[in-house]
Amino acid sequence: MTLKETISPTPEIESLTPETFTHALMVLAHLDSDFARILKKFGPPPMWERERGFPTLLRIILEQQVSLASAKAVYARLCEAIQPLTPENFLTLDDMQLKGIGFSRQKMLYCRELAKAITNGQLNLVQLETMDEMTIRTELKRIKGIGDWTVDIYLLMALQRPDVFPKGDLGIAIALQKLKGLTTRPTPTEIEAIAQNWRPWRAVATRILWHYYLSVITENKKIK
């Protein structure tokens, strides 16, 4: 019996626990020698957990196509401006207030659409927690401004689903190119193909790749 077979595939509606996370790291190290090398050199990655609900989903929208540091700063100013950060409270802010906080006009639209969908009953984030990934993806993508990457990050960080894989994530693409010695940055389709071997723990593989990206690639940029 192989290491991969010592535990049955995790149902996709279950969330990662510290125990299954540790097991998944062992499985992935066995499957991929590059992962084993990362874990040996840098130790295990964080689980990167976020609370479920509107504030986290809004923060992920802010993180679309900008640096995490920039999005974090905007989110921090937003949390200072309104407490608690609820859909209803968010909708009380006008364009000038949001612009002062750091919202682009596009992000204003997207976050308001999310807030309105929750307040009018179109979207129930609590009910989504118990649904399968495809249903969650379909429901969230009905909201303007929410695409696959946003859904992936919410599933991965907030709902802690074990096999979610954000194939469109730039950090993963850069990490894979360096880790696998690829001449060009892999496309989302190529990344998805590479990741098939990591099922049913692709969300844990994502964390290993982020860990590698933050530990090696971003540090090298700082040195330069």
UniProtKB/TrEMBL annotation:
Enzyme Commission designation: 3.2.2.21
Residue span, HhH-GPD domain: 62-214
Signal peptide: none
Transmembrane regions listed in the UniProt entry: none
Reactions listed under catalytic activity: Hydrolysis of alkylated DNA, releasing 3-methyladenine, 3-methylguanine, 7-methylguanine and 7-methyladenine
Gene Ontology CC: one annotated term: protein-DNA complex
Enzyme class: hydrolase
GO molecular-function term, one example from the UniProt record: DNA-3-methyladenine glycosylase activity
Keywords associated with the record: DNA damage, DNA repair
Presence of keyword Ribonucleoprotein: no
Gene Ontology terms describing biological process: base-excision repair, AP site formation; DNA alkylation repair
Protein name: DNA-3-methyladenine glycosylase II
Species of origin: Tolypothrix tenuis PCC 7101
